[in-house]
Amino acid sequence: MTRVAMEIISGDPGLRPERVVACAARTSAIRETEHEALLQGLLAVQMDARVPLDSEMVRRDALQQLRIPEHSLTVSKLREATFLLWFDRSELRNATLRRGPLMAGRTRLHIMPWSRQFGASDSKLMYRVRVCIEGVPAHATQEKIVAKLLPPFVFIEKFDYELVTENEKACMCLWVWAVDPDAIAKEGLLKLEEPVEFRGGNMELPVVRAEVAQMLDYPVLIHLDRIVDYCTPPHSPSWRSFESATSGIPDDSVDVEWPVNHKLYWQLGIKDGQLGTRRILVHERLGERRRDRSPPGGGGGGRGSQM
Do 168 and 224 lie in a common domain? Predict the structure, then answer.
């Protein structure tokens, strides 16, 4: 083994994925923060990107030109040559926008309103999927935990509490939006951290963690129950339902289902795509540890006594 190969450690750039795609729902927290940014935030873009600037230089020069108290403005760098100016009052933000460009170092800063579209491009998620997850423990039914069982390019729209069948009632059911339903796994392993120790048993003191993070592993099955498909346009022949009129010409007046709805079949305890019903052994229902402390073969010991 070469020396270069020996020096590669976990986390080395050569071992990491090149790209990740993550989807997130529009939550109330996002809406509130966006509202604040619209009222208090401005974008400052360097006219000459070759001039080296940092956040503190922009903040210092902006405070001098605007003649406002130091606590009124914070500056953070969004990317090269682009800064976010955050004012503590919307009046200061509006006055700065009306004022126009600022100077920082040896370049001018173009000032414009903050927008969530800045630096972004449009895309669409074309599949709405009802997912039923089997095996999630009762204390871990929060959205941020369950979301870890789904691909990063899937986001949870809502939990579905209208459970009709016994199979559904045994699962966590939710509606998600997905780039590709085929990327949703059929089974998973949910690893939950065990409680950590507190110093001296006092929960107000800092946590004392052991050498490793202790986890409990919960096997889960992920069932796809329904798929609402927006992928193909409604006028596409592949989704059009034709009925022949008297003349034999397709009747275009027939209603076309849009979006296309697919109902999928699944069984509790069976991975999607597998056939047959497997009897669940008693020890699997009770867990891995043996709950029955009687000797093997029953309470009588061995196979039983003969009369």
Answer: yes
